[in-house]
Amino acid sequence: MAEVKELVIQTRLGPRTISAERIIDFPRGIIGFEDLHRFTLLQIKADSPFLILQSIDDPEQGLLVADPYSFMERYEIKVGDTEQKILQLQDRKDVAVLVTVTIPPGRPENTTLNLTGPVIINTVSKVGMQIPQTDAALPSHYLLSEKT
Description:
Elements: E1 6-9, E2 16-19, E3 24-25, E4 38-43, E5 50-55, E6 62-66, H1 81-87, E7 95-102, E8 112-122, E9 127-130, E10 141-143
Antiparallel strand pairs: 1-2, 3-4, 4-5, 5-6, 6-7, 7-8, 8-9, 8-10
Keywords: Bacterial flagellum biogenesis, Cell projection, Chaperone, Cilium, Cytoplasm, Flagellum, Translation regulation
Pfam family, one: FliW
Subcellular location: Cytoplasm
């Protein structure tokens, strides 16, 4: 049987054709979406730091995410040994870090990055995982209007 190289998925942004190579497997799902395991990243606009982590299996489900380093100089996360094994991490340069973005209805000036639940993706193995951070000394959110 021939391997599927592209597939068309429905999204809130309309139908999108994605390469099968862009599918990211989340063996444990994502908090709130534990039953969904296949996602892809969709660009909203070419120059935007925001992406949609779109479910392949449920077109209604997608999370607005961003690279926190586009907004902050320092953001350190802890990835335990078990998580490193699941992610098949061999080299730190193969890691993409994303955080979820919250835009309160009618108040875009209060948009925040959620720093407590980063999404870590091994860009080589295409395995992802959300890894809650429990260090109470670190801020839980970053208000984008604080960006200088």
